[in-house]
Write a structure and sequence with these properties.
Layout lengths: L2 H13 L8 H25 L8 H17 L3 E5 L10 E6 L7 E6 L14 E3 L2 E3 L7 H16 L8 E6 L9 H4 L1 H7 L4 E4 L8 E2 L5 E10 L17 H16 L6 E10 L1 E5 L4 E5 L8 E10 L2 H16 L6 E10 L6 H17 L5 E2 L18 E3 L6 E2 L7 E3 L3 H15 L2
Helix pairs in contact: 2-4, 2-10, 4-10, 7-8
């Protein structure tokens, strides 16, 4: 949906009459969201103005402290989980209401942004209906949509006797390793939940996400015989490392590419007589000469997939290609898991159906599934094995991960109302 159409939808909503299928309680919840909207935006501005780049642990904790106080005010129990030293990340904030009515929900957000302490992009700036700021859209805005949806339920007396767990990670933009430590708490929460709702950036006013591709890394190392270039291709020298890596990457492109939702990208390549590569910083140096056959090559890349089966098929194809070496060369490829896939399950589709129906009831129109090929990985993927879910319930805007990041304020209230009614219906 383009920006102009998005704004039109918001303006239509601002004067629409609620659909008759909304209950008295749901109309009350929607009214409360409207009453609290100015307060919510003031809260968001304060939160955005706290730098919480992934490696700014103090800033993340300060961001969490503000959120924690707000959750406590609506009667939720909160916990802060520090990460072990070896994970080298800030902790996570969890909040919970306890009860046994309706579905048990897991609501997912994150506290960190991609903007470090020394970034020039630091503060909230508002002009008419546009608010710019680090994390305004990704995803402090989504966190506040979540918070004020729950606040509306609390003020309407609809939060009582429900089990709702809120998980706000401090390291979504660059997850800590090992994942068994950094994602332990959210997986434990998922195992005692029925439905997960992710409040990452909305892709469109009438779209939600029922599938996200997983991501993993791969590193290819190739070796050849170092020799004077006059000897290349003979029996002693062979093809050299650069010809071998060229063969491998070309076959990846021609033989592995093509399956829907499967993509892979060689992001860094270094080759020559001597290579030094720092995988953590993804940078390095290479030395070589045109009259010396290359001795080594390193390639660092990523792989995206819609299911574990698709991931494993691609890996097997890549391993087979890597093993079929040119003369006097050798190669090895290693894979590193990161985000699992969130497949488009029937359960996810049922939640989307409920979201679409209540959106029509409110007057927002039908909500449809967004193309998973156009979304990145997110924390909801870590729990997709255990619960059905929908993501993309957060704010609308553009420019995430750039100094042009902005939030469309004219859709904020409507999206909070939609989230509140979804949570309400799921917990009935």
């Amino acid at each position: 949906m383009n920006n102009r159409l998005t704004l039109c939808v918001a303006l239509v909503w601002s004067v629409c009459t609620l659909h008759a299928q909304l209950s008295k309680k749901e109309k009350q919840i929607i009214s409360i969201v409207s009453k609290n909207n100015s307060e919510a935006l003031e809260f968001l501005e304060t939160n955005v103005n706290i730098n919480s780049g992934t490696m700014n642990f103090e800033g993340i904790k300060a961001t969490a402290d503000q959120m924690e106080e707000a959750f406590q005010k609506i009667g939720m129990i909160t916990d802060w989980y520090d990460m072990p030293k070896e994970v080298n990340r800030a902790g996570h904030l969890f909040a919970e209401s306890k009860g046994n009515r309706g579905k048990r929900l897991l609501l997912i957000g994150h506290l960190d942004t991609v903007f470090p302490k020394d970034s020039p992009f630091q503060k909230w700036q508002q002009q008419d209906s546009i608010a710019m700021g680090p994390g305004a859209n990704d995803m402090k805005g989504g966190n506040v949509v979540m918070l004020y949806a729950l606040k509306a339920l609390h003020e309407a007396g609809a939060l009582k006797n429900t089990q709702i767990i809120v998980a706000l990670h401090g390291d979504e933009e660059a997850s800590g390793k090992p994942l068994s430590e950094s994602r332990k708490h959210i997986i434990d929460a998922a195992k005692r939940s029925d439905v997960a709702l992710g409040f990452e950036t909305s892709t469109g006013f009438n779209n939600a996400t029922i599938a996200r591709r997983g991501s993993s890394g791969w590193t290819l190392k190739v070796k050849g015989v170092r020799a004077h270039s006059s000897g290349i291709f003979n029996e002693r020298v062979g093809a050299g490392a650069i010809f071998e890596v060229s063969r491998i990457l070309h076959q990846f492109y021609t033989e592995v590419k093509g399956e829907e939702y499967l993509t892979f990208n060689p992001g860094v390549i270094l080759g020559g007589t001597k290579v030094d590569f720092d995988k953590v910083l993804t940078r390095g140096t290479a030395f070589g000469k045109s009259n010396v056959v290359a001795q080594e090559v390193v390639v660092d890349g990523g792989l995206r997939f819609i299911s574990e089966d698709q991931k494993e098929r691609a890996r097997e194809q890549m391993r087979a290609i890597v093993a079929n070496n040119l003369p006097n060369t050798s190669a090895e490829i290693t894979f590193t898991d990161s985000y699992p896939a969130m497949p488009p399950t029937d359960g996810n589709k049922e939640i989307l159906k409920m979201l679409s129906e209540l959106s029509i009831d409110i007057g927002h129109g039908k909500v449809e599934a967004w193309d998973p090929g156009r979304r990145g990985a997110a924390d909801i993927s870590f729990v997709a094995e255990y619960v059905d879910g929908v993501d993309g319930l957060g704010t609308m805007g553009r420019g995430a991960h750039t100094p042009d990041e902005y939030l469309d304020l004219r859709t904020f209230e409507a999206l909070t109302q939609r989230a509140a009614i979804l949570i309400y219906r799921l917990t009935r």
